[in-house]
Specification:
Strand 6, helix 2 and strand 7 form a beta-alpha-beta unit. This protein is an alpha/beta fold and 159 residues long. Helix 1 runs parallel beside helix 2. The strands form 2 sheets. Strands 1, 2, 3, 6, 7 and 8 form a 6-stranded mixed β-sheet that branches. A two-stranded antiparallel ribbon has the order 4-5. The protein has a single domain, classed as D-tyrosyl-tRNA(Tyr) deacylase (D-tyrosyl-trna(Tyr) Deacylase, Chain: A), CATH 3.50.80. It contains 3 helices and 8 strands, in the order βββαβββαββα.
């Protein structure tokens, strides 16, 4: 699993002409599911995001996590995070999980992040054509890949 998280002042998802989800201060999480991702990827990634200290404390240092600031979360599925751009000019998405595999992992992620933070995340509509608007705060944008984190020797410390 792969996520791009952005610290935002606000963000929203619009489908057609209707705003379907919106948040204030918090995290916008673009979430991609790779073929073969398992519950262990969901557990690790959700835990990492829930504990990510990227919000400022009183000294303006990134020391607070989403729970400490009582922030909102907006999760948007995004298979394009697994674009392979090595050959040619048209990206390949063969590594991205097909919807029948990706949707259950996406839904599992939504439940896990809610369990860890105590707050239900707002979310987009899986596989919909969405417009996402945001005000990036900082800007702070971080890429997290469960396959890199789970393999890292220090990842056991993050459990």
């Amino acid at each position: 699993m792969r996520a791009v998280i952005q610290r935002v002042s606000k963000a929203c998802v619009t489908i057609g002409d209707k705003e379907t989800a919106a948040i204030g201060r918090g995290l916008l999480i673009f979430l991609g599911v790779e073929t073969g991702d398992a519950s262990s990827d969901v557990q690790w990634l959700a835990g990492k995001i829930a504990r990510m200290r990227i919000f400022p404390d009183g000294q303006d240092r990134m020391n607070k996590d989403i729970q400490e600031i009582q922030g909102d979360m907006l999760v948007v599925s995004q298979f394009t995070l697994f674009a392979d751009t090595q050959k040619g000019n048209r990206p390949s998405f063969l590594e991205a999980a097909k919807p029948d595999e990706a949707l259950p992992r996406y839904e599992e992620f939504l439940k896990k992040i809610e369990h860890l933070t105590g707050r239900a995340p707002a979310h987009g509509t899986f596989a919909a054509d969405m417009q996402v608007a945001l005000i990036n705060d900082g800007p702070v944008t971080i890429l997290i890949d469960s396959h890199e984190g789970i393999k890292a020797p220090w990842s056991k410390l993050d459990s």
